[in-house]
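[scheduler] slot 2 assigned
[scheduler] job type: sequence-to-structure, two independent chains
[scheduler] chain ordering preserved from manifest
[runner] begin chain α
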Amino acid sequence: MQWENESSVSEFLLLGLPIQREQQAVFFALFLGMYLTTVLGNLLIILLIRLDSRLHTPMYFFLSHLALIDISFSSVTVPKMLMSMQTQHLSISYPECISQMYFYILFACIDNLLLGVMAYDRYVAICHPLHYTTIMRKEFCVLLVTGSWILSCGSALLHTLLLTQLSFCADNTIPHFFCSLPILLKLSCSNTSLNELVIFTAGAVVVIFPLSGILLSYGRIGASILRVPSTKGICKALSTCGSHLSVVSLFYGTIVALYFSPSLSNSNEKDMIASLMYTVVTPMLNPFIYSLRNRDMKLAMGILFRNDIPFSK
């Protein structure tokens, strides 16, 4: 490691996943396959939505953005992790580390906000079907997505600017596979109380607020179904909300499963597993969830691969 001065470092050491050397090749192939599946699967979703005019609706507009975010989210951390596993080169420069942290926070925030926006879209579709096209007009959908980007960029930039004010004058070893903000704060020899306050405040905005919106939306949907209980209504609700509800359950269920698991007492271990779920597993599964549980997506995919029926213009 090179020292710039007594209070800052020029690089960090990413220890990566706790995998034995003889198992590196197996895990490298596994994670490479999962990453390629993530990229190709989500690109396929974007392509289908772009080509088939029947999928030019608010729900699929949000889904195409979620697919783009999933690709970006994985690409922030997985290629660097794979390169380190292959070359055993563990160092990452200070600017690269800060940039990686920024984009990780950015895409994590957008992911949360988009899930909340999609839950609101499903609520309007089921509870106010007659006013759906009026409420979820194109301009409003663009505004929701743009607002999610602006809010996420602001949050990530704030965390990054505050971190750059800190000094790192002791250990430069990061026991993780990417530059995690909580771990970087632990490595700092400066006062991090302001950073921790911002994490708590920003977390309430980009995590608690979307989650509350999701719970409220599905609470209203459930109440609407119970008011007029029928097999047809339940089937319609499951068809409309099934894919999104599955993704939400996978995304937030990871937190519940990990942080309430008695077998995992190490907070860093929990953080590493959760990060793997968010950056590797969930983005890979999303295309399968939305394609296998969605009739319109399966129809569009069949048309694309059979090429026997032209897409609507």
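[runner] end chain α
[runner] begin chain β
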Amino acid sequence: MGNAQEKPPGSGGGGAKSDQATPGSRRRGRGAGGSAEKPRGKGSPEKGVANGTQREKSHPGGQESPAPVVDTSYLDAPAGALPPHLARLKNEGNHLFKHGQFGDAVEKYSQAIDGCADAGIDSPEDLGILHSNRAACYLKDGNSADCIQDCTRALELQPYSLKPLLRRAMAYESLERYRKAYVDYKTVLQIDTGVQAAHDSVHRITKMLIEQDGPEWREKLPEIPAVPLSVQQRHRDKPVSAEVSQARAARAAQEEARKQETRFTALKLEGNDLVKKGHFQEALEKYSECLKIKPNECPLYTNRAICFLKLNRHEEAKQDCDSALQLEPLNKKAFYRRALAYKGLQDYLSASSDLQEVLQLDPNVHEAEQELEVVTGLLRQSLMDSTAHTPRV
């Protein structure tokens, strides 16, 4: 069974169990102790059964529809050293667990565990996995007491196994047995320092223990076992499953995204602060770094355009405003700052057009009104100069 997301701690202790077996015992059939199925008489076959044969549902035209094909190939997947009939029970339990049918999965694992006892199979690895898998089901159902019992048995069979340790720690925490939970989480981290759930839980439980036991909380802890170096090395050398590899890659991607977001926010704030101080070249560099992280962030282009304008780099200011308007076609700041860039490039007609766009979007932008008057005057003057220098034919 692959790594499954465990039920969060605090979701309830060993509450009432519905239709589940205690560890090591056989589970009753569904009818036992509950509402028994009504027996059918010999002369009253079940609906849909003719002469003892299940009949397929028919289409209105009279043709029988073929039964849907159910893929059961997973039942024959390798399962350690277990014989085929027990391997199928384990695989069926894994399949049920993945589909959220935890009570049914418990039944299959229990049958496999009992089957090992009946067949005299004494494989610590296979039995340890079965107990650990059943513990995961109990944890999902909020049955922390039986989860602890199964995890403890799994650890007796295979000491320092990571999954039973982690599941038992979560079960202890859900029962508010914080000292034992702390010990198990710390043991997990000796084996694999990359288990983020254990790091988070240690920090959380430490605060609880300080509140509960005061400054001497460490003295009241049970002894934390020292994991042998051979066990740590064996865990490091163990091949990583595809599921674990994907989970680690996802965590790494999330961590990288978090770092980049933090860096982006810091750079943007530094850029804004530098603009206020009039340090436009340094601010420009900060905004450029921001755009490497988020190239589609419209305000960065309009902010950087201010810097280019202040440095008389009008063509670059215009290009940044073009980029902003591609992202937000009705951005007033982009139109206004592009108008200033056109003015610097002495393209007064384009500047006038952009300023009119600003006033159409918001007639109350007084800076645009004032700038439009200036640009209109410059446009008129440029046209007059152009006419004066045109030779007569």
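[runner] end chain β
[qc] chain β: The longest strand covers residues 49-50.
[scheduler] slot 2 released
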